[in-house]
Amino acid sequence: xxxxxxxxxxxxxxxxHLPPGEKLLWQGSPARWPMAxxxxxxxxxxxxxxxxxxxxxxxxxxxxxxWQQMAHSIAIPLLLGAAVLGLLSLIGSAAxxxxxxxxxxxxxxxxxxxxxxxxxxxxxxxIASASLGMHxxxxxxxxxxxxxxxxVGYLLTWPHVRPGHYIQPQPTLRALADAPRAAQVLAGxxxxxxxxxxxxxxxxxxxxxxxxKAAPGTRATAAA
Length: 224
Hints:
Elements: E1 2-5, E2 24-28, H1 32-39, H2 42-62, H3 67-97, E3 100-104, E4 107-112, E5 118-123, E6 127-134, E7 140-146, H4 154-157, E8 172-176, H5 179-194, E9 207-210
Parallel strand pairs: 6-9
Antiparallel strand pairs: 1-5, 2-3, 3-4, 4-5, 6-7, 7-8
Helix pairs in contact: 1-3, 2-3
């Protein structure tokens, strides 16, 4: 498992040609708005600035300010909120556009980075399990649990990590419009890899649906 920068992509989303015997099975990228909304917390930030505007309006009314004074008092937080939300949305969109997730017959590759593109290489032999979680908007995340002592840096991998798992970060394929398909491909690849020539090195691997909002037909399981 390694992380490296690159300047040339012989295959889109991959930093180099695949070795003999390895095949590309699936590629995808995050949906832009879901990525920005969940990874960069756009909605909570919007709620914060909305409450700030309400507070400014209530304060102005209690002070019996004129409409001009009220407009002046809310102009700064309104403009600041619009700028912050616009910036977060732009970063989220750029991050999604710069990201390519790849599943091959031997590994998962996460290519990410806006200014400095990097690739995170996750061989199947280091993946202990994976979970598929669906969201209400129809997108989903596929989180990978690495076998100990394998570990990735949370900040180096963010936002392509499962939120809240800081001690043992879980690399995650986030905000996928076809998350069930990605999970099914990964389940099949893990199962086939576990019965291949490297089976003695491969830990048990399971892909399972996590959460109560999973869409029908999204269950995919593979056990080594």
